[in-house]
Specification:
By secondary structure, this protein is an all-alpha fold. It is about 40% helix and about 0% strand. It has helices spanning about 1-20, 50-55, 90, 95-105, 105-110, 140-150.
Length: about 150
């Protein structure tokens, strides 16, 4: 009896915790796309460009490097060129546009793009098992990658 009660209390606490962590985040299906892109931060917490650069390279996170390179990452191994080089990308696009591209490239760029949607339940075609029902990046990781892209100015 005691053990059971303990378990129940623990579960309630865990739910309460995750609910408060989520409270300030915009859920993937609630992200608002406007003509300017996604104007509102997904978390309200400024992105960290250093964490963003890590997510950009990390194969189990953004793995942006598999398709994009830029001068500051040219010495990294295994970079690809399926997508355009991202040098100066922050001079070509406004921040809300870049956020929209990261959240859901199918909406922001084109239905046909090979780029995955990183904060969308429609991640893309032939999605790895581990991403079914999840977003590839968390809301904060999107903001971090965005902050990193913001450093890529011409
Ligand atoms: C599977 C390959 C792939 C991955 C992974 C990928 N992209 Fe892309 N990305 C593309 C392609 C292809 C385009 C060009 C748009 C199109 O499809 O026509 C693109 C376009 C872009 C653009 C617009 C660039 C411009 O100059 O117009 C940005 C910004 C971008 N990607 C950022 C990212 C970031 C950041 C990540 C990681 C979080 C990422 N991409 C991951 C393939 C990819």
């Amino acid at each position: 009896m005691m053990r059971r009660l303990k378990f129940t209390l623990g579960a309630v606490a865990a739910i309460a915790l995750s609910a408060s962590a989520m409270a300030s985040e915009v859920a993937p299906d609630a992200v608002e796309f406007t003509d300017d892109g996604v104007t509102m931060s997904l978390t309200g917490v400024p992105g960290d460009p250093v964490a963003g650069a890590d997510a950009f390279k990390n194969k189990s996170l953004g793995n942006c490097l598999a398709c994009h390179v830029n001068a500051s990452m040219a010495t990294e191994q295994f970079h690809g060129d399926v997508g355009p080089a991202l040098d100066g990308v922050a001079s070509r696009w406004e921040e809300p546009e870049l956020r929209a591209i990261l959240v859901n490239s199918k909406k922001a760029l084109s239905e046909e793009t090979l780029m995955p949607g990183f904060y969308s339940m429609e991640v893309g075609k032939n999605v790895a098992e581990k991403f079914v029902g999840k977003t590839i990046l968390t809301a904060q990781q999107v903001e971090d990658v965005l902050a990193y892209l913001g450093t890529l100015k011409e």
